[in-house]
Amino acid sequence: GSGVRIVINTWPVTNSTKAAWDTLLNNGSAVDAVVSGCSQCEAEQCRGTVGPNGSPDEEGETTLDAMIMDGSTMDVGAVGCLRRVKTAIAVARAVMDHTDHTLMVGDLATKFALEMGFSETNLTGNRSLSKWKAWLAKHCQPNFRQDVTPDPRQSCGPYTPKTQTMGDPEEQDSPGNDIQSAFAHNIGEDNHDTIGMIVIDQSGRISAGTSTNGLTYKIPGRVGDSPIMGAGSYAMNGAGGAAATGNGDVMMRFLPSFNAVSQMQAGVDPTTALQKAMAPIIKFYPSFHGAMIAVNMDGKYGAVCHGYTNWTFCVADDSSPEVQLHFIDC
Ligand code: SD4
């Protein structure tokens, strides 16, 4: 092996970093570590934006996007708009490990997951339900183009709240606060989070993955950048890995993770590679919000962000036993 071990992930979700690092310490592979790190985030429902009980769509449903990529083989498994199954990154791994396919979507991804032994549950919880109820007062606006009014759909709402059936141990949002935060979200400041993670293991294999419940109040059927290889994340042995978070509808148009890995393959350092990958997005969409992380095969890493005031990511490597939180200005 190369001797370089590292875990790097988006956002201040240190338990996920720790879970991935512990997997490496127990001789797990880079893929194992990405899956355990992202699974931790799903189980914690971290930031309300990964796993169940977050980011309701227009009809109040939470759906999940995830991918896992093994840079030592270039195998990928991904799920988009996964319904009624909590463990999106594990289902993505099942696509990678047990099929010749790469990306499965919607109800048929659910059917596949059930056949693989995953269980079916309602992904709605108190948090997602109260967010959605708050949004109802202003339904059918945020995800339609501002220049197209009125909303041309005939079928858009009014929606009827469904009953909650999922357990919700860590409910934090009060409905009152939620109305304010829902409207704040509608102006686009911080309406989305994704865990994106890159790992190099003791054998020198690199892996990258993502997990998210996507964009809040999305139009049902919307799939973001997170499960799209080259957009949400990418990893290639000999080159490096990258992962993205932010406004996926815009970012996926530029395949920024693929671009960053290609830059690193050509010898560009991680931070410069990310700057080059972000530059065309900024040029065409100066007001977008997003951030990226990258690591090369030497374990050198970087991060960039745009549109946030500042941004946080996590690293664990052999230089320090504790998870390191890194803050950058955007
Ligand atoms: C998406 N990129 O679905 C994801 C959401 C997110 O920070 O990251 N956000 O567009």
The strands making up the biggest β-sheet line up spatially as 4-3-2-6-5-1-11-12
What is the number of helical segments per DSSP (H or I, 4+ residues)? 9
**How do the helices and strands follow one another from N- to C-terminus?**
EHHEEHEHHHEEEEHHHEEEE
Strand count, sense and barrel status of the largest sheet are:
8 strands, mixed
What is the percentage of strand-forming residues? 15-25%
Structure summary, number of beta strands: 12
Overall mean pLDDT score? 88
Low-pLDDT residue intervals, each spanning 5 or more residues: 167-190
Report the span from N to C terminus. Answer: 35 Å
Over the alpha carbons, how many angstroms does the gyration radius reach? 19 Å
What class, by secondary structure content? alpha+beta
What helical percentage do the residues reach?
25-40%
Hetero groups: N-hydroxy-L-asparagine
The geometry reads as globular
Describe the structure.
This protein has 330 residues and is of the alpha+beta class. 30% of the residues lie in helices and 24% in strands. The protein has nine helices and twelve strands. Helix 1 (14-25) packs antiparallel against helix 2 (30-44), helix 2 (30-44) packs antiparallel against helix 3 (88-98) and helix 5 (126-136) packs across helix 6 (175-186). The longest helix is centred in the N-terminal third of the chain and has 15 residues, at 30-44. It starts with 5 loop residues before the first strand and ends with a strand. Residues 192-194, 212, 214-215, 224-226, 245-248 line the site of N-hydroxy-L-asparagine.
